[in-house]
Structures are given as C-alpha cells and as structure tokens.
Amino acid sequence: MLAASVNNTESVTIDFTPAGPTVNDEPFAWDLVRLSDRTFSILHQNRSYTAELLELNQTTKTVSLKINEHKYTVQLKDRFDLLLEKMGMSNMANAKVDDLKAPMPGLIVGVSVQPGDAVQKGDSLLILEAMKMENNLKAAAEGTVKAIRAAKGDRVEKGQVLIEFV
C-alpha cells in the first residue's frame, strides 16, 4: 500500500491487488502503454492522457510527471513511512545515526560501504536477504561509517549490529 499526495494536496491510498490497482479502496481501471522510456499513453474513463516521467527521486520518494502538458509532483509514502508516522517517529530522519541493526534474521548478500565512508540519508548500505527477498538497507540519516560488523555471506539475527557509525 502507498499513500500519495499530489502537489501537496490531500493524500490518497493506492494498493496493488491481484484483481488490479485500487485508489482509496475503489477499483482503478486503466490501460497503460509505454511509448518510450519516460513516456506513456493512458486511457482512463474513456479519456486519453499522455504522461511523461520528468524526475524520480528515490531518496525523497518524489515523482515529477507531466500529464497532458500539466506538471504534477507526487510524494509517496510506503507502509513503513506510514507506520513511522503513526508511531510519531517520522521526524527521526534528522537524528544522528548510531548503528544499523538487522531488522530481521537473514543472509548478507552485499555490502555497499567501507569504514570511513560518508553516507547521506537514503544511501544504500547493504543488502539483507530474508524470506527469499532482498532488502536494501539504507542510511536513515547522514553519518560516517565507523565499522562494518557483518560481511557478505554472513548469517545475522534480528537486532544484530551490522554497521557502526561515528
């Protein structure tokens, strides 16, 4: 499930179900055809739209689109963002990073940083495989890597320190 806010307006919920996408729990019927890497043709409720992807910022989870010559900025929140917001922890991104701990047991399949590396919020730190899925663990805030406590191929337990920050 995603929450999407277009041009800083009221948020809508988007979900992808086996029966197709829903918006605010209502089925959303559309036909989408890719015209190029960044351009799409959309048919919705017997109306035609041309959509162009202008920018995709994965760090801020923001998408800029041009639809029929009108520009839109869409801010997305996934279920984890919504959970943090619900718990009152959405402003913790500005906090100093202490340690990166394993959110679940799994296998380290990749490490993207080294001791001494400066990282920014959203930078990929390592990949943890759990339940047959690869989870890209990212920096919650800016910091400097002090030590890496897990290597590629290591099995880790939930709560185990993986990376220490200065």
Automatic annotation (TrEMBL):
Record carries keyword Secreted: no
Keywords assigned: Biotin
Record-linked Pfam families: Biotin_lipoyl
CDD domains, sorted: biotinyl_domain (cd06850)
TM stretches of this protein: none
Keyword set includes RNA-binding: no
Stretches assigned to the Lipoyl-binding domain: 84-166
Xref: InterPro entries: Biotin_BS (IPR001882), Biotin_Carboxyl_Carrier/Decarb (IPR050709), Biotin_lipoyl (IPR000089), Single_hybrid_motif (IPR011053)
Domain of life: Bacteria
Record protein name field: Acetyl-CoA carboxylase biotin carboxyl carrier protein subunit
